[in-house]
Amino acid sequence: QDNSFEQFIINYCNEKLQQIFIELTLKEEQEEYIREGIEWTHIEYFNNAIICDLIENNQTGILAMLDEECLRPGTVTDDTFLEKLNQVCATHQHFESRMSKCSRFLNDTSLPHSCFRIQHYAGKVMYQVEGFVDKNNDLLYRDLSQAMWKANHSLIKALFPEGNPAKINLKRPPTAGSQFKASVATLMKNLQTKNPNYIRCIKPNDKKAAHIFNEALVCHQIRYLGLLENVRVRRAGYAFRQPYEPCLERYKMLCKQTWPHWRGPARAGVEVLFNELGIPEEEFSFGRSKIFIRNPRTLFKLEDLRKQRLEDLATLIEKIYRGWKCRTRFLLMKKCQVVIASWYRRYS
């Protein structure tokens, strides 16, 4: 219920993670259909980039305003920081404050005068402005860093590298908000170079007890985790996509024309394969470089057919091997019988 600077920067990180989730799932999903030339009706979804900009914008963002208050001369308090926010962010649709002279919130008794509220992606959160300036100015004095760096213990010296006299910097140390913002930017840059998988965890109840299912709580989490938008995009689109070459390589044994080797373009081979299997045309689409399958059941059918075909091929190999082994044994026994008979006739 009481949120301060710590919860603010945690929620900022959550917003950035949600933003990259949107970019790598919803946005990328729809852009791939366009790249592949698939007929597609665009589905609207909420992009929380506007909330991230409210927090991290270098000129008008909340963190920038907080740093400006921490660094400017004169009397600086949490109230002056809130006044500055009310001047700069008053017209922003996701910022709420009773002191912003905005008629929508002047009579909002649920919003105290010393607080501001942000409409995050996952809902509205109210922050107590008290302590923002002091916590953002969480600085370690240089003389303390230098004293710790002079310690004989190697671990302590390694924890305070800024105390090294050879690296003394007269510039003001960065604020806590600036350091956190830089760390989040590094994290986002790292995630964008990967191919992440997402696991969404749903709490069935607040008591952490078994066999209790709070439907309202679950619906709230599903709505604000963006699962509904993701499901809408997935249901309107295609559940599975794969380049033509690996698709043909995986399922070519299901068609006599493509097994064991297909002489020609991979796309043509996939077309022959799907026509041979009798898969309805509405269940798949051909892109420029990939085959798109709409429903999971079609993919499950292909996998079941492949599994059965592999068993049949294994049985065929086993049958041929057993036939070869028995024939080889028979020929050897026949040869031995001829040799024994010939020697018996010689001495009889």
From TrEMBL:
GO cellular component: brush border; cytoplasm; microvillus; myosin complex; plasma membrane
An individual GO BP term: actin filament-based movement
Region (Actin-binding) residue spans: 184-206
UniProtKB keywords: Actin-binding, ATP-binding, Calmodulin-binding, Motor protein, Myosin, Nucleotide-binding, Repeat
Domain Myosin motor residues, every copy: 1-307
Key word Disulfide bond present: no
Gene Ontology MF, one: calmodulin binding
Domain of life: Eukaryota
Coiled-coil boundaries: none
Pfam families (alphabetical): Myosin_head (PF00063)
Annotated SUPFAM superfamilies: P-loop containing nucleoside triphosphate hydrolases (SSF52540)
TM stretches of this protein: none
Family designation: Belongs to the TRAFAC class myosin-kinesin ATPase superfamily. Myosin family.
Protein name: MYO1B protein
Organism: Motacilla alba (White wagtail)
